[in-house]
Amino acid sequence: MHELLEREEKWDVDDHFVVPDLHDLIDGGDVDLSTVHLESVYYDTSDHDLQSHGIVLRRRDGDDDTGWQLKVPDPEGRIEIRTSLADDPPTELKELLTGLRLGKPLVNVATVRTDRTRYRIRADPEDGVIAELADDLVRASVDHRLLAWREVEVELGPDARPLARRLTKRLTKAGARPSRYPSKLAHAIAAPRRPDVDGDGPSALAAYVSEQIDAIFEGDIALRRGQDPIHDTRVAIRRLRSTIRVFGKLLDRTAAGHVDEELKWFAGLLGEVRDRQVQRRRFRKVLADWPPEIVLGPVANRINTDLHSEQLRARKQVAEAMDSPRYLDILATLQQWRAQVPVTTAPSAVTLRKRAARAEQKADRRLEAAADSDDDALLHRARKAAKRARYAAELRRQVDGSSAVKKAEKHYKRIQRVLGEHQDSVVASDALRRFALTAGTSYGENGFTYGLLYAREQQIAQAARDQARELLR
């Protein structure tokens, strides 16, 4: 199984379209012309769960791309994950898609046959392909329906940016139009549509909730690919849980309470991984900057090794949880929420503003109660309230773009950052106490450097408390 970044543009053309001359796109360039017949069999759940997330899974025969291909959206295009040819979807691809398919089986949803004329553009005959233009005659079979169309597909290499602009102008002049469909599958089968939501308030709530759910699903497949979307996934979960807390009276109470509780469970597992990641970076940077005469014993190795071991154990727990019925059930519920948020009444823009304002007032009260206290728990509660106020302002901004809303969002983000630094110091201090106890009973180690690190964390925590008081004033 290997991955590559695919940058592709699709164009709608009619039967009379003529591919423009491509030989002079690059000075001294060369164009290889060939034809190939492709057969692609597409797989999805019967409910088209993959397609709803922009995911394409297909088995391809007929050219040098023969095999299984999984296409995943990426900010720079699409990531194409390839495996060798087999009759059924390979186990490794099914495992990657466990969350997105909600544990459902994969079935054949369409067969697409393509007669392709390929134009491969090179700087010279000996160089690699810079770009490929494919003129496709397509026939699709979906259930008992047969469809046919023509389209142009342009695949761009990493060095094709200047060429892409010239090619776009040339195709446009020849009568090609940017395609309405992101893939041949989307042309053959309409992607599941989310119901239209009337009114600024309901549409803002639905859009914000869907954005967070999309990020959670993106985090799911990234985690299964061995990537590290822990932070982004936790932020999306926090935003969704915050929305449930602040705007909960607008939602079905039973459904919202269940989602909140289950997201809290999974976020807690992710937090165990994230805390170790943050601490490892935090201590590594400090110890690297300190003079060696005050770093006594194998402090850096002890901290990194122990935290990394804990991180791997926590990451294993996340992986096990992601294959559990409990996790798949919450994803299934979130998929339903993507289609329709379970509101009990359509929230007006005024209602959203009022709920967001109450979140700000609560954050202010909690900060005031915590600012003059040395109680870490109160400061942590104030931090969580500031997060909810910030995220509520983000949602409110979709119906009220005033400077006051933007100012509130920045203000509570600043409070969240300051109190987040305090909380990181609290967690780091607890870890340092554990390390110091171990060092005190281990040969060749002592607690001197751990004491210095602990004192440093106490200073950081005090500075954060002072900053919180300033923000309150």
Summarize the structure.
This protein has 13 helices and nine strands.
Structural key phrases:
globular, alpha+beta, 13 helices, 473 residues, 8-stranded antiparallel beta barrel, 53% helix
What are the SSEs and their pairings?
Blueprint: E1 2-12, E2 30-44, H1 49-52, E3 56-61, E4 67-74, E5 77-83, H2 91-96, E6 107-122, E7 129-142, E8 145-156, H3 161-173, E9 177-178, H4 184-188, H5 200-224, H6 230-246, H7 253-289, H8 299-322, H9 325-339, H10 349-371, H11 376-396, H12 403-439, H13 448-472
Antiparallel strand pairs: 1-5, 1-8, 1-9, 2-3, 2-6, 3-4, 4-5, 6-7, 7-8
Helix pairs in contact: 5-6, 5-9, 5-10, 6-7, 6-11, 7-8, 7-9, 10-11, 10-13, 11-12, 12-13
